[in-house]
Amino acid sequence: MRTAVSTRPGAGGPDDPVLRLEGVHKVYGTGATRHVALDAVTVEFHAASLTAVVGHSGSGKSTLLNVSGGLEQPTSGTVVLSGQELTRMGPAELARTRAGLVAYVFQEYNLIRTMTVLENVCLPLELSGTDRKEARRQALQALERTGVPKHTRKFPDQLSGGEQQRVAIARAIADHRPLVLADEPTGALDTANGERVISLLRDIAAGGVACVIATHNPEVTEAADRVVRLQDGHIVEGGA
Ligand SMILES: Nc1ncnc2c1ncn2[C@@H]1O[C@H](COP(=O)(O)OP(=O)(O)OP(=O)(O)O)[C@@H](O)[C@H]1O
From what superkingdom does this record's organism come (predicted)? Predict the structure, then answer.
């Protein structure tokens, strides 16, 4: 059984955003350690678009991604994903919704070292209730799409960094979630592998996914349909 969450892009129609943040604040710490990481952030992300989130180190890029995907709740403001308000949800509902709608790609790949490539890509599918045979079919299709179909029986440590990132992207796209959040996905890669990953993320966005990438890489920014720039937790370019 799949989780009972909608995978529609928006709430009502095709023009609705996949994700909308409205008046979002995120404050860490209290007193002398209080830090405002996001300050009145209002922004939308649409299906079939690749957005680069840029800004200096500490400007709030990762916090924006974490709040967008429900990994963290904001201090105030609303986050609506595929018509569902994440900011109203308790931890269990949030985890369920996240599992159905959001895929993550990280700089350090985050593959499970003791599982084969195929098992890694099958894992989220099986966790969300897809039966084993169907999970395998979808995982193989995703590995084919990301150009690493020959490595299914290998373990992550037996692959190059570029190959591991492409496995991580296969895992992210295998069950067709409408939102892909990537935090510095080219950060650990050389130029050629970085370019492959960018081109793959472009393809994924062109296929209908809202793809949001936090990055310091100017090549990602160049390839993006849109740039959102953060400065000290404020959006200074490309908001809403
Ligand atoms: N869990 C936390 N507790 C306290 N402060 C935090 C926490 N997470 C982030 N911050 C602070 O919030 C600010 C924004 O952090 P964030 O990681 O979002 O920045 P970033 O733009 O992604 O930076 P980088 O480009 O270096 O990854 C920083 O000043 C950071 O120190």
Answer: Bacteria
